[in-house]
Amino acid sequence: MDSLSLVAIVSIASAAVCIAIGSIGPALGEGRALSQALSSIAQQPDETTSITRTLFVGLAMVESTAIYCFVVAMILIFANPFWNFFMTQAGG
Amino acid sequence: MHISPDNLIYWQKGFAVFNATIAFTWIVMGLLTLVSWIITRRLTSDVALARGQNLLESIVLGMVNQIREISRHRPARLLPFLGTLFLFVAASSLLAVIPGFEPPTGSLSTTAAMAICVFVSVPVFGISRTGLKRYLMNYVRPNPLMLPFNVMGEISRTMALAVRLFGNIMSGTMIAAILLSVTPLIFPVVMQLFGLLTGLVQAYIFAVLAAVYISAGMEAQVRRQEDSKKGEPDG
Predict the structure, then answer these.
(1) Which of B3, B160, B204 has its CB closest to that of A56?
(2) Helices (H), chain B
């Protein structure tokens, strides 16, 4: 097996693993945050606006870890530097 | 398929590159300026408002109220900067429904530039409010051992700000492109609608986080007196 196909196999597989594992944690965290926010809104409906705003900001922060994984997966698939390196070596 | 509008190059001559990011950034800027100029040319203090003036007034008032609630400072100082960030990100996400429009925030260069603006404006607003010495003292609190962590936190939250916006907008366009090749009939429309929602939420979050960072820098020594009042958001 030459190095080009090895790079392709490893990057596709690791992109899949990256997005699969990386979305588990944020999903659990967002679920917890959302359920807490809903129960606090049910207890104190007057504070809905402030709770919702804080919830949105917090969700965005929790979600950013999943977004990092997504960006890394996209880089591995569409803009892989190692792939380009071996491509030019094979070409030249 | 391209990962960002940076790769869509219209004209190139040596070092100078004119790509889709620059083009659509200028389009959004021109549109915002032009619409605001046309509307604000004839403002009235009448009871009967023009439709455009009503729209602009509600947008600006909403931003002022949000900033006042978040930062508990006079919003007039923060409004121009934060409002510009919010309006630019929101407009470029909303215009994504137009076919052929590539949101300029889907490029890491744009979001990194805006995040660096926030990174620079935190000490600018902080020093202008509390003075240089007091602002710098903020970094060695609780004790000087925390100095590298504070500096690291400042840099990493700037990076997070840039990558979060880029990743969200880029994933929207990417998913639409993938779905278009898999199930081209109805699902791309649904994802476009969802992309509108996430775009607006991300614009809101970007502005809110910038407001939180800036007001945290401005509240440097006020916090010492009312220490246990409220935990500072970080990230």
Answers:
(1) B204
(2) 20-40, 51-71, 75-94, 108-130, 132-137, 147-182, 187-218, 222-225
